Amino acid sequence: MLPFGVVSRLTMEARLCGTELPGDNIMRVRFPYCSKFIALSTVLALVGILMLAACGQFFPPADQITSLQISPLNPVIKPTATQQFTATATFGDNSSGDATNQVTWASSATNIATITQAGLVTAVALGTTTISASSGSVRASTGLTVSNQTVTTVAVTPSSVSLISGQTQQLTATATFSDNTTSNVTNSATWTSSDTTIATVTSTGFVTAVSTGTATVTATFGGKSGNSTITVQ
Fold first, then answer.
1. Does pTM surpass 0.85?
2. Which among 132, 117, 121, 115 has a CA at the least distance from the CA of 78?
């Protein structure tokens, strides 16, 4: 059934164009091209209804979770150890807040590590698993490694870079473990830029200078982070 406003509009156009309506004795004048006018007006009215119906998709409810971030990223823990994860959500009104107890937590390999619905992980055996938090279709995830050795530091080299807009630079992340061994974790770390309008970074540490300014690029692995300062001239 069409809304009352659309029915009223079509009734008015029918009378204007001289179409006889049941029980209608109103004098009317016929105009040329009325059928085309009515067809166009009807289409526009229906388009308006569809646009209004779609507004709910473009403007989600204020309390609806639209994006998620979880922390820590890529932690490394020992067998039988526990690790608390937290989830930070952005909501439909653009506010943000803790959503640890509002999301659904999961471990992709429960034989390696289990996780409660409060975000608490317990390491079961050596290996790796993916920890995820989800709310409806919104999802965030990170890796978790269970190892006898834990990460003590992460260093990013070069530690500072000066670039011209458009230039690129490959960064390297090196992790030091509790037994003093080191490993290149460039392709395993999570890379972020403090300001993507100045410099962007890929998931493998490849930086691209965008515009003048200074940004900090961070690599996170095993719950530890290292930085590089990117200056774009």
1. no
2. 121
